[in-house]
Amino acid sequence: MTLKKTLQIISIALFVPLESTLAGADSIIVQSSTSTKNSGLYDHILPIVKEETGITVNVVAVGTGQAIKNAQRCDGDVLLVHAKSSEEKFVAQGYGVKRSDLMYNDFIIVGPNNDPAGIHGSKNVSKSLSVIATQRALFVSRGDDSGTHKAELRLWQASGADPAGASGSWYLETGSGMGATLNIAVGMGAYAMTDRSTWMKFGNKGDFKIHVEGDSRLFNQYGVILVNPTKCPNVKTAAGQRFIDWLLSDRGQISIGSYQVNGNQLFFPNAK
């Protein structure tokens, strides 16, 4: 036997077990909204997931719209976002196996303490947005097709105001995530809509405070979906479904509900 042939055999013997080990590793990719990551929820639950299921979860945190596009391109095993109609369309088009409610929080409108539009304490989000538009008070939007942006656009439509026509004047679109958008809003003294969990975790509040909250239309539902292996053959179906089952289980729901920041619960589990 030649030296070259011997080395080839040794190389194959060393490589095959390593390849097998990697192929069998329980690691999945979750395409996720930024709010769940910015809030610190994953830092809280993923170590528990690893300990109890053996699954390593790698999170790609982008806006909901981008997360859905990534999943449609088969770049991920599980989708965890917050735009129910878009999620249902994702499933209806065959990209997802099944959508399940997971948890909820709510949206709020924050702004500078001096409240230039005079909306503080309002529980009517449509009226508040209408006043902001009438007063031409600065408002910073994510403008990124995220779940928060989609919800904001629905609320503007309900208010009867058309911020698109004011783009670049009093209505400013960042095309960025929630944290960056809040930083810009604080820097400019502008109003912004955010999910409450991101706001609670956000460190650069300056003199900002919550001005509008409590309207039922500010309800913010999160859902979880296994990417369909029929569309995406490389999906790690078993591990992905095991992760989803854990999230929806009593243990997962209790873990989600137990996450707090400064004594405040950030997400409220509501799996059915």
Number of DSSP E strands? 12
Low-confidence stretches: 1-24
The fraction of residues assigned to DSSP E strands is: 15-25%
Described by strand count, sense and barrel closure, the largest sheet is: 10 strands, mixed
Total of domains? 2
The quaternary state of the protein chains shown equals single chain
Q: What's the rounded overall pLDDT mean?
A: 91
Summarize the amount of helix as a percent range: 40-55%
Helix count, DSSP H or I runs of 4 or more residues: 11
Tell me the series of helices and strands, N- to C-terminal.
Answer: HEHHEHEHEHEHEHEHEEHHEEE
Tell me the span between the first and last alpha carbons: 64 Å
Shape field: globular
In the CATH hierarchy, the architecture of the largest domain is 3-Layer(aba) Sandwich
Entry keywords:
single chain, 272 residues, alpha/beta, D-Maltodextrin-Binding Protein, domain 2, 2 domains, 10-stranded mixed beta sheet, two-stranded antiparallel sheet, disordered N terminus
